[in-house]
Design brief:
about 270 residues, about 70% helix
């Protein structure tokens, strides 16, 4: 318990604080001297702070970052996340004309399906059909998606008064996205790739379907609570959704742990 209260000593916290502080410094400089050329960088660091901090925490707990070559993870971040955003953005615009109406409850099904497409394309090759690799790839894809989506929200928040509103949007999304997009996609991948590792091939099981349905429902509930016309106090239920989302992801990955370092044998004189 004492270690939990010393979270500020962990790498994930230092990464989160440093990245968020860099974003805030860039926005402050933009407001001070009017140089808006650095705004994309400010938005990128602000959008990345929370997701990257969580990635560091998960890797320190599970070691999954070593299960896939770094270049593959970067490719999934850039192109997998981008392709998911392309698909999600297209079908969201096509099927959800009113962002503040009941159709917003379809978003979870659309975006979780969109994020699954790049991951399925990799899984079909059969190269990374193990749980650790699948979770690493899923988190990379979700991180790319979440960062680019958060940057789009930030751009929409820039107004005549400057980028301060955008900075606040990025800070709030930085707190939320690690327990939303990353948790939902990570849950699906943990269950799916775990099942595929056991069978040596892609197969749709009840557990895989259940994980996808749970992620899509939680995703849609989150967006509904934030976007629909709901009384103020009820909106706070999105915190419960975030907690349940991360709890399910953590349970699905509790068997992924870093191998303990070997203890050297005592020397004999």
């Amino acid at each position: 318990m004492r270690e939990h209260f010393r979270f500020y000593r962990h790498r994930w916290f230092k990464v989160w604080i440093a990245t968020a502080a860099l974003s805030a410094a860039l926005i402050t400089m933009t407001e001070a001297v009017g140089n808006r050329a650095v705004m994309p960088a400010a938005f990128f660091y602000g959008a990345a702070a929370g997701p990257v901090g969580l990635l560091v925490a998960i890797h320190d707990r599970t070691g999954i970052g070593a299960s896939v070559p770094g270049v593959t993870l970067v490719g999934m971040f850039l192109f997998g996340g981008g392709a998911a955003l392309l698909l999600g953005g297209y079908f969201n615009a096509l099927l959800i004309p009113d962002k503040h109406g009941p159709s917003i409850l379809q978003v979870g099904w659309i975006e979780e399906s969109a994020k699954s497409v790049p991951l399925l394309m990799v899984a079909i090759t059969g190269r990374y059909l193990n749980k650790a690799a699948g979770v690493a790839l899923g988190l990379s894809c979700a991180t790319g998606f979440a960062i680019m989506e958060s940057m789009s929200y930030a751009w929409r928040s820039v107004d005549a008064t400057g980028a301060v509103n955008a900075g606040m949007v990025l800070f709030m999304r930085g707190l939320a996205t690690p327990f939303s997009h990353l948790a939902w996609t990570g849950l699906i991948c943990a269950v799916a790739f775990g099942a595929w590792q056991l069978r040596g091939r892609i197969v749709i099981t009840l557990s895989v379907v259940g994980a996808f349905v749970a992620a899509a429902v939680l995703h849609s509930l989150n967006d509904g609570l934030l976007m629909l016309d709901i009384p103020g106090p009820a909106r706070l239920l999105f915190l419960l959704v975030a907690g349940v989302s991360y709890w399910l992801f953590h349970r699905a990955t509790r068997d992924l742990t870093v191998a303990p370092s070997p203890v050297p044998a005592p020397s004999r004189a």
